[in-house]
């Protein structure tokens, strides 16, 4: 069954974690006074694990992801990736996939996928080759020369995932990548993501609203409360891999889901 | 409606208009002194294009318009981007540009004449003055329209400041800026020709004024036709370019 631990794991050294969030807070001034978007959150992520981060809206999980990506400095605390303090984006180590509309609309699908390599100055031939391989991985090789406005929402997100995998980063940060899609596309893409992940076994931090998605996709789930965003739970998902749809109908699955919901509700 | 059909209809419409014009004058319904036939105007256009002095005048006006464009465009875009990105200066000076854009700039011509004379420089400066307001407003809108999510994703993938500008800002802003340039060019050409008509030594506008004063209708209409052809050419080129760089905005 699920194991609910508190922040006990924070007592381990930062060296053992691939990614470690160390007592991070985000506080800002708003009209109504100080807002604690993230309140002293600490947790560690092991290499090669698929981690979920769930919580209600406005609980600061997206802010946490931005901090892990080096795009936002925490008000206090730090994020450590493989022993290095994160102060700015490290695209060679960390890939990101956001919600929709993060593709450059004036570029084709393949140009979008190779964009991170283009920024790094990789040669055109090499980056084109890489990008086409990634598009094939997500099943969109035939759409390489299409522009985003010619693609459906699901296809656009697949291109975004291909882009995230493209530089072969160790860590992939995903902020509700399937949130804007219909349920069927969500489930299909979730399976595809797992399929690709099984091949490369990257460390993934997956932010989501959907409890079902969290239980289905992840090895471990960190649960956050509403504002001020505190870490209220850490669950290990003991379901076997590869995950199948039948698992979603089992009692174990339902219990895991309910446990997450209980943690959020009672926080 | 397929493009070929549309083109055929438009071509016939123009042809019909010219025919009506030609026939109403040659049949005597319209006074030929007041409205020469299209054939006469066409002949004059060709004749004028063979005269070295006319070519000089056309070249002069074109140069004034082009130099004004070359100076005003980067200047306007730079100011607009600065005002768009800087909260304090933006709040202070954006209203100035918005309000002033609607003022007819022609009323300022006497000021330009008094301070800069009636020569080449004055025309260029007046052209810049005509263009700058629309350009700044377009640039502000363009910079506001750069999607934050794209800036974030580029930063996440390690874009330098320079790369952010070249890879995200420029392509995103270009269609809006080109549209702004197109509108500003209309003001530019209007302003330069008007300044030449008002008082000038030379230029196409100056010649149009002379022909008007002399009641030389064939040359006057020929001059108007030339001005029309040039301004339509500029406008359509910019519209074509705007469509090209803005294809993705669907």
What would you say this structure looks like, in words?
The complex is a heterodimer of chains A (267) and B (250). By secondary structure, chain A is of the alpha/beta class. In chain A, α4 crosses α5 and α7 crosses α8. In chain A, a hairpin with a 2-residue loop joins β5 and β6. Chain A starts with a strand and ends with a helix. In chain A, the strands form two sheets. Chain A has a seven-stranded mixed β-sheet, sandwiched between helices. In chain A, strands 3-2-5-6 form a four-stranded antiparallel β-sheet. Helix content of chain A is 32%, strand content 25%. Chain B is mainly α and 250 residues long. In chain B, α2 packs across α10, α4 crosses α6 and α8 runs parallel beside α9. The radius of gyration of chain B is 22 Å and the shape is globular. At the A-B interface, α3 of A face α7 and α8 of B.
Brief description of this entry?
The complex is a heterodimer of chains A (267) and B (250). Chain A is an alpha/beta fold and 267 residues long. Chain A contains eight helices and eleven strands.
Q: Structural class of the helices, strands and pairings of chain B?
A: mainly alpha
Mean pLDDT of chain B: 93
Shape label of chain A: globular
Could you give a short account of the major beta sheet of chain A? 7 strands, mixed
Q: What order do the helices and strands of chain B follow? A: HHHHHHHHHH
**Number of H/I helices of chain B:** 10
Model regions low in confidence, pLDDT < 50 over at least 5 residues of chain B: none
> Biggest sheet of chain B: strands, sense, closure?
none
- Number-wise, the strands of chain A total 11
